[in-house]
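Thread: quick sanity check before group meeting

JM: Hey all, I'm pulling together slides for Thursday and realized we never actually wrote out the predicted structure for the chain we discussed last week. Dropping the sequence here so it's in one place. If anyone has concerns about the input, flag it before I start.
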Amino acid sequence: MKIRSIILFLSVLLTLPVLALAGPVTENNFHTETTEDLINLCTAAPNDPLYKQAISYCHGFLLGAYAYYQAESDGPKGIKLVCIPDPKPTRNEGVQMFVEWAKAHPEYMKEKPVEAEFRFLIEKWPCKP
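JM (edit): ok, ran it. Output follows.
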């Protein structure tokens, strides 16, 4: 029971920096013209009026782009750039890793979000020849 409490405490503690940096979500963020827009959606505060929509959009955007990449790279002429380990991180873990990476790389915040996503994926899990 004590270990469970410690794990819960650490989990909450680790998410505080993300929540503290999250600004209010705006309708314009949903246009996802920049990585910054996507990060604003992915880090929406639970009390934000658009929280559910923002988090759902964030997950859908990231998973959709990755699903397209998988379909394309699995084809006969596909090129594998990303090799996710087994066991795979959970969806929430993957999103959290991307958010942390993006915040550590502010130089990509004005890029298209799909470009930043794949910079992250290729850096984190490159395929080895």
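AS: nice. The chain is about 60% helix and 0% strand. Residues 2-124 form one domain.
JM: adding both to the slides.
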